[in-house]
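Here is the promised in-class demo. Please do not try to memorize the tokens; focus on the logic of going from shape to residues.
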């Protein structure tokens, strides 16, 4: 699952980039500095500088001017500021970079830690959430940080001495940059927009409320009945969160040869009710009634009960996140939409490039071939929910009850999970010393939601691993999620503590941390002690990644198209938004999925919870799968731990530069498609 969105919000205004070219001023309407002032200021700064400092001045002065307002000072005061704070000496510039990084670590780290503490009640399992808990959870303590950095002139000093480079420049020039030059470039990304604190706070509130809504959206499976009044799910299944819990239960039901298909069809019907909001409000996070999702009837004590459908609440939160993001558009002149900021600025991959990559992949002939293979293995025609076919994993032949018995024995409580982390790393090839080094910096919490990993933002703090831990211990679903989140924690620790420059901490975008989380997650059975001697295991692993990409790429396309539609229709009602989400989901389904999985006009691609509580995040998952596959090819035959420790501390290069360092090539769909063709040939022999 994703890295916490709140930390991303805390630093949001520090990572949005402004494309200012050499000797070219790009100002927003907020600036009060004209071109003549800019040129005269540059001339004065260049008078006593070497060639390197002259180039910096030519680039940085227009960028400072683009952010300078009348409240910051007059044109004369602008020039005086630049003359006073421009650092021409290279040694002094490096010292300034060190000072900025040290203080930014303290600021970002402490604000992040405060955010963790304020959200504990809504994120960590415990007493019922109170209205005050909700308010603290939605509060952003760093909302005024950006304003403070500009009013104190610290932001301007940073921009003046460490100018911004465009993505194209980073990709090309970065091939030969030193680590110091990369650090300077990332300092140049720090201040490029001026989003008011009130706007940041509204965005934090919208994200927090939608996250709380999703975290409490559980379906009590034992209360579901079919048209014959039969209960297909035992009480032990408990309440499953949408969509993750429902999806994972559906996946596990492939191992149930007796009732698995009936269970899957019932879950699919529940999902459809959630998407179209015909689900009874009374069954959400409640076990008071029995619910037949086919006839959509409620009963209690054998008597039918009247109910109210959920009043488009799902789409209310989607719309409110959109409005909060849109409110920041006017303060981001170069990336004036949330779409541009999510892709060009944050992912550092354009939306157009992502769409092209994904549509080429899901249109590939290997999709239909893989679908035929799955039909043969299932012995039936495919149905829409087979988008989550899980039979390429070795656990498909192991019952979930058996797996849960094992995980509950190993991890009966939070303390056992915490104590068991080093053993997981040992099995992946980490030495005892390195395992302790990493695990001492990770803290386990029982999660209210499906689970997530929350990074630390300063050395001395700990990353958080959240997963569900029941009264009887951690079941297999919780364990599978925990292994995934632990992969995030390992990345978060190495790219904070082992990176050479604080400003370079992290990875290019969240797809890269997802890639390592997937590397961990695919080995979950191995970590439990289940050995796989299948000679086709490599082919099966390839097909599993391939089918997972096929699944999530369509969902990401729906997410992107929904946001484009919202920008075209910002005044839409919740009901109109609901209908459009389903329309787009059906269109993508009919074009790329119905030919393989059947059922025209299925809306199932609209079920993903990330659409509601994580704006424009979904593309990171399939992009991460592509990175994972190339990473797995690099790991083959090597010590996994050694490679992870080699690769990840390089920090936040651009995606293509990071991949060249990690695996020697850029991100591409070709390696996975080529391996899938070979895997299909092997499986069909």
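The designed amino acids, position by position:
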């Amino acid at each position: 699952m994703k890295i916490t969105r709140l930390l991303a919000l805390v630093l949001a205004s520090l990572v949005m980039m402004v494309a200012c070219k050499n000797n070219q001023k790009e100002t927003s309407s907020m600036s009060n500095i004209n071109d003549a002032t800019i040129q005269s200021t540059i001339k004065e700064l260049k008078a006593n500088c070497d060639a390197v400092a002259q180039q910096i001045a030519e680039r940085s002065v227009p960028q400072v001017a683009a952010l300078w307002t009348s409240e910051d000072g007059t044109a004369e005061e602008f020039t005086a500021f630049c003359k006073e704070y421009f650092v021409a000496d290279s040694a002094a510039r490096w010292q300034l970079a060190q000072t900025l990084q040290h203080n930014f670590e303290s600021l970002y780290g402490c604000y992040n830690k405060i955010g963790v503490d304020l959200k504990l009640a809504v994120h960590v399992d415990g007493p019922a959430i109170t209205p005050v808990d909700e308010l603290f959870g939605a509060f952003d303590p760093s909302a005024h940080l950006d304003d403070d950095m500009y009013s104190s002139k610290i932001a301007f000093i940073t921009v003046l001495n460490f100018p911004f480079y465009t993505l194209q420049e980073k990709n090309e020039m970065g091939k030969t940059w030193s680590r110091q030059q990369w650090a300077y470039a990332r300092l140049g990304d720090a201040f490029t927009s001026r989003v008011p604190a009130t706007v940041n706070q509204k965005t934090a509130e919208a994200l927090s409320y939608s996250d709380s809504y999703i975290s409490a959206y559980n379906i009590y499976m034992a209360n579901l009945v079919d048209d014959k009044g039969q209960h297909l799910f035992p009480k032990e299944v408990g309440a499953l969160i949408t969509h993750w819990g429902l999806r994972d239960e559906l996946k596990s039901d492939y191992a149930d040869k007796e009732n698995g298909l009936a269970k899957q069809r019932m879950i699919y019907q529940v999902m459809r009710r959630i998407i179209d909001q015909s689900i009874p409000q009374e069954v959400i996070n409640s076990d008071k009634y029995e619910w037949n999702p086919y006839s959509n009837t409620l009963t209690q004590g054998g008597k039918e009960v009247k109910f109210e459908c959920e009043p488009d609440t799902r789409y209310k939160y989607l719309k409110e996140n959109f409005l909060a993001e849109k409110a920041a558009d006017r303060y981001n002149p170069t990336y004036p939409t949330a779409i541009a900021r999510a892709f060009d600025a944050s992912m550092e991959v354009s939306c157009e490039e992502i769409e092209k990559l994904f549509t080429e992949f899901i249109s590939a002939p290997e999709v239909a071939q893989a679908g035929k293979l799955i039909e043969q293995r299932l012995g039936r025609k495919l149905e829409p929910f087979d988008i989550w076919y899980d039979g390429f994993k070795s656990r498909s032949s192991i019952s979930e009850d058996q797996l849960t018995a094992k995980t509950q024995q190993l991890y009966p409580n939070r303390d056992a999970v915490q104590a068991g982390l080093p053993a997981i790393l040992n099995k992946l090839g980490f030495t005892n010393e390195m395992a302790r080094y990493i695990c001492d910096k990770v803290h386990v919490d029982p999660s209210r939601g499906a689970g997530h990993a929350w990074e630390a933002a300063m050395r001395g703090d700990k990353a958080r691993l959240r997963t569900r831990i029941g009264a009887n211990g951690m079941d297999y679903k919780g364990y599978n999620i925990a292994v995934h989140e632990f992969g995030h924690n390992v990345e978060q620790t190495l790219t904070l503590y082992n990176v050479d420059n604080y400003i370079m901490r992290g990875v290019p975008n969240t797809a890269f941390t997802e890639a390592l989380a997937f590397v961990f997650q695919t080995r979950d059975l191995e970590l439990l002690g289940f050995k796989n001697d299948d000679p086709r295991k490599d082919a099966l692993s390839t097909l599993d990644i391939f089918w997972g990409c096929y699944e999530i790429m369509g969902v990401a396309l729906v997410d992107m198209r929904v946001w484009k539609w919202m920008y075209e229709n910002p005044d839409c009602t919740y009901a109109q938004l609901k209908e459009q989400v389903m329309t787009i989901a059906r269109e993508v389904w009919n074009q790329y999925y119905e030919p393989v999985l059947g059922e025209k006009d299925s809306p199932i691609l609209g079920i993903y919870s990330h659409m509601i509580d994580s704006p424009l995040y979904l593309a990171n998952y399939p992009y991460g799968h592509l990175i994972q596959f190339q990473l797995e090819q690099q790991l083959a035959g090597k010590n996994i731990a050694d490679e992870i420790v080699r690769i990840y501390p390089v920090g936040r290069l651009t995606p293509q530069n990071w991949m060249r360092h990690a695996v020697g090539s850029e991100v591409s769909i070709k390696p996975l498609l080529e391996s899938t063709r070979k895997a299909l040939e092997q499986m069909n022999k």
